[in-house]
């Protein structure tokens, strides 16, 4: 993270903003964060950087989620590389990864730790 | 030991095969190849396909770069004129000298032009090289009729070429029958009957005496029987003669009627000089087929190694399609073997002819003739080549199945020595070896062994052998769509249809495992849409959609989208054009005309899409499905309404077709076009389904493709009325939707469809599978439940919520999306420009 400021437990949106089995994007202090809501998983919510380092565009929240060999992933809508929702790793290229954010549900609020 | 200098004279199919095998053998050699033509080796067997749409480049067997990278010195266009046997060097036309340790002559052959007065008049030509094709094409443009002299295999190929060029084609043959070498009288007669039905005029027992200037046409042929024939062009294809002049002048032994004499080792009378292919004479015979030429190349090469194999003659059995007619000839087709007996089955109604020649005790197959139906060819050839004992009633081999049917010769019954691919000489044993080495599919075996990559005639047999071998090993062939479903797309479609499955979750629960992925989710979404046609952004489906379907627009490289409203048939009013311009201006979008006669608006952010579409829908536009694996566009020319040449209303038909199939979700995108006459301005033959107007109705072309791997569409049916045309398209599209693989265009689908276009005709026209009513009903249901996805979307508050760039910050901008100006419009900034602009604004 380039910014020196640390934000704790920021409410970024509400449950109502999320789409089940899919992603949305939240904007916080210049950061774009892709938030995925997977109601059948534990935990139910995941957050990674929205920037696709391979396609070089802010699009990961608009990818299809699923699992590859048991790892929860989102496929970039640009060139289809898979990013691990838990670790941020790119499955196709181990040298590439995206930031992962600590995210939780508090009632109907979506809370992220920066 | 220093590397041997090997010089190969001639770069045709056989010469090239020799070089390929030499490179693969790992022998230490310095290779020089000298070819007379200016092109590297190409596939002469499929020459006529250039006239039915193939590019000459597609025929190439190798490239200059491949030779260069392999260290081969390739000299083209400067033919060898002399062999200095004493000094062991060849000298080219320009006087250059190339020394050799071993010399290989693969000079091939040239077309025989009978010594007839006038055979050199303008309009007389030959058919052998790619350059000949160019001349034939140029002459055909100035001609109405064309004659081929020669009713053999090459002559009929050539007649097909003339017919494809739109000429009134004639075949003139000296002998009483067509293909006299391969076919017996009965087979020859049936072939003639079928060819004449295709409107090729056949003249047999005609000895041409002279060719003079014609009165009504360019040329006039006068025959020995007093008759004559006028034509605009004549192509000689009356057999081949070996190119043996070089050998002859160098004092090598040649046959009395030409051909460089070779022994079992393919050596000429000079033991350092080999001859292979059509220039070589073995046992008094010239082998005018490619497979024996390849065997010679291999035999000649083996003489340089420890593992010497002799050339012992070759099987001349052949199977081919001439003018669309299946013809097969095996072994002793004329029944010349002493004591042999024949069984003949002739069906004049179906126009098929089959004969087998068997040994005197009826136990072995000696030969066969097949015309009109070659389905039994592969089996018969195996019986012949491997000396397999015939069944007690040999006639059952060729009788139609109502009489009990031919006993199936399973691939498992073949001995390991059985030749499966005669072009690349791959035996069943070789295939088993490849499978032992890890190949798990026919495609992998093909890549590994070369089997079926020559003429392709053995493709079905190869697949049988591979499948049966894999099955015998208990390998189930994995055709799973992805790790979540152990099914093909076709199987998933069937499951969803039969079990009336309406959601991905239900399908996954019942038939899959895990959570799904970006492969199976969109594929299943497409299947569900084809079957039930629900709104694709419903809660159950939205997470399955690729981003393009999710946002009903096409994502571009910087994450913005482009928008393509439907402009059916490419017809648009001035008012609607103005609306497009106004919308583009209002949202500052880049505009471009597409190849499909529509207008694409680029650079829209997710949050701008609903506004853009509210304006477009209000003006009467509908979504164009440019984002979906669905029907895209139906191009048209203006047709009979405006054009002086048009014979039908192509625009009207295009609009009807586009409106009928708009919104149909399919395994891949679908494109179509309608042309108003044979000038084909709408390019219908490059589409998944194309329609061309005729005086009497419409011709339907199927499974064409432009793009990465172009394919000319096949003519499927002719002179259809409106209603029949639509019925056939309904059935075709639904059959494709049901049976294709994920992301498989119709062109590839057809190429993988067993039985090809003929089978497709049986299904769609003759209703062989009895499913046409069902296919039509399914199409009616899709057509009846059409909705404009954008109209539905902008009417729903809830759905519009999805079109927020940031769910928590409606006014924030994506700083990464930066445009610059070019030619008066926006375009995405490149990396450097963007970095600079972002730095400046910071």
Structure, described:
The complex is a heterodimer of chains A (114) and B (842). Chain A is mostly beta strands and 114 residues long. Chain A has a single domain, classed as Rieske Iron-sulfur Protein, CATH 2.102.10.10. In chain A, 0% of the residues lie in helices and 46% in strands. In chain A, the strands form 3 sheets. A 6-stranded antiparallel sheet of chain A has the order 1-11-10-4-3-2, with no helix packed on it. In chain A, a hairpin with a 4-residue loop joins strand 5 and strand 6. About 1% of the residues of chain B have low confidence. In chain B, 31% of the residues lie in helices and 21% in strands. Among the domains of chain B are: 167 residues, FAD/NAD(P)-binding domain; 115 residues, FAD/NAD(P)-binding domain (3-Layer(bba) Sandwich), CATH 3.50.50.60; 57 residues, no CATH class; 77 residues, Sulfite Reductase Hemoprotein,Domain 2 (Sulfite Reductase Hemoprotein, domain 2, Alpha-Beta Complex), CATH 3.90.480.10; 154 residues, Sulfite Reductase Hemoprotein, domain 1 (2-Layer Sandwich), CATH 3.30.413. By secondary structure, chain B is α/β, with parallel strands linked by helices. Chain B has 26 helices and 38 strands. Classes of the chains: A mainly beta (114), B alpha/beta (842). The interface between A and B is large, with 38 and 39 residues.
Indicate the topology.
The complex is a heterodimer of chains A (114) and B (842).
Chain A: E1 10-14, E2 22-28, E3 31-37, E4 45-49, E5 51-52, E6 57-58, E7 64-68, E8 71-75, E9 82-84, E10 100-106, E11 109-113
Antiparallel strand pairs in A: 1-11, 2-3, 3-4, 4-10, 5-6, 7-8, 8-9, 10-11
Chain B: E1 4-9, H1 13-25, E2 29-35, H2 64-69, E3 73-76, E4 80-84, E5 89-92, E6 97-99, E7 102-105, E8 109-111, E9 124-126, H3 130-141, E10 145-149, H4 153-164, E11 168-172, H5 185-197, E12 201-203, E13 208-213, E14 219-223, E15 228-231, E16 233-236, E17 240-242, H6 245-249, E18 260-261, E19 273-275, E20 280-281, H7 290-302, E21 318-322, E22 325-331, E23 341-347, E24 352-358, E25 365-371, H8 377-386, E26 419-421, E27 426-427, H9 428-436, H10 442-449, H11 459-472, H12 489-498, H13 504-511, H14 520-532, H15 539-542, H16 547-551, E28 554-555, E29 561-563, H17 574-586, E30 590-593, E31 599-604, H18 609-618, E32 631-636, H19 650-661, E33 670-675, E34 689-694, E35 697-702, E36 714-720, H20 722-739, H21 746-752, H22 756-764, H23 772-784, H24 789-794, H25 797-800, E37 819-822, E38 825-828, H26 831-841
Parallel strand pairs in B: 1-2, 1-7, 2-3, 7-19, 9-16, 10-11, 10-16, 11-12, 18-20, 32-33, 33-34
Antiparallel strand pairs in B: 4-5, 5-6, 8-17, 13-14, 14-15, 21-22, 22-25, 23-24, 24-25, 26-27, 28-29, 29-31, 30-31, 34-35, 35-36, 37-38
